[in-house]
Amino acid sequence: MAQITLNSIGDAVICTDMAGRIDYLNDAAEKITKWSKADARGQLLNTVFNIINADNREPKINTVELVLKNDHPIDLPINTILIRKDGSEIHIEDSASPIHNNLGSQYGVVIVFRDVSAAQDAASKLMYQAQHDNLTNLPNRLVLSDRIAHAIALAERNKSQFYVLFIDLDNFKKINDSLGHSIGDQLLKEVANRLVGCIRHSDTVSRQGGDEFIVLLSECQLQAEAAQITSKILATLLIPYRFAHTTFSISASIGISRYPIDGRDVAILINLADAAMYQAKKRGRNNFQFYEAGLEQLVPAR
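Structure tokens predicted for Diguanylate cyclase (302 residues):
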């Protein structure tokens, strides 16, 4: 009767003896682990119930040993991955409890677990959407602010500097209005791809909205190097774009601020790079401008 009941529930159940060898799986456990009852019986739990940490891929603790040692139930964290018999992986939630006989003595362990991969994937998708621009998949303002703050903390410790680039496409509205928003969106995606291709993996490209992008050069120490990277960006963005049998070019204006010379705060560094970008536009577009004192006073009110 007990086995019929256990096979009727949705959760997977595995039971072991005191040595940690499996003596029972219900039907759900067979399905989730992909081990048959016959093959699993007598196997050490870690062979069938092979679990690792999702963050660092390190093996999890020996569940049987921990339960028997403490003689009380335990829950494993939700970042647990089960490696199944065929090598595939799923996220699980599980708990384990000691089994006692009528005299109160331990004689084994029962593990109850379930597949939470769908919920984990949904949570990961929501987290990604909360941190990235929907159109370009670039990190959004929130992520950029965190990364600049991290760069500030690192630069303070190392007595170093870094650069922030504020990029605005020249005459984007004309292209968007004349060729349509679909072409405009494709252009922004391609600009994002080109910007990512111009920088190092340690740097960050973020879309601020509209046709504005920000680049964090987190390991750039020299002004000459920042100028070289910025010139490369301008040249790369100027390469003609081809969408729906239409070919056109677009340039950009870029403003640059420096930590700690220009500012020591995330918002200040972004605002000063923005001010320098406006000066670059005033100088004829398709160029860049390092921030200079007083440029922020020339920025028109938005």
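The two ends are 74 Å apart (CA to CA).
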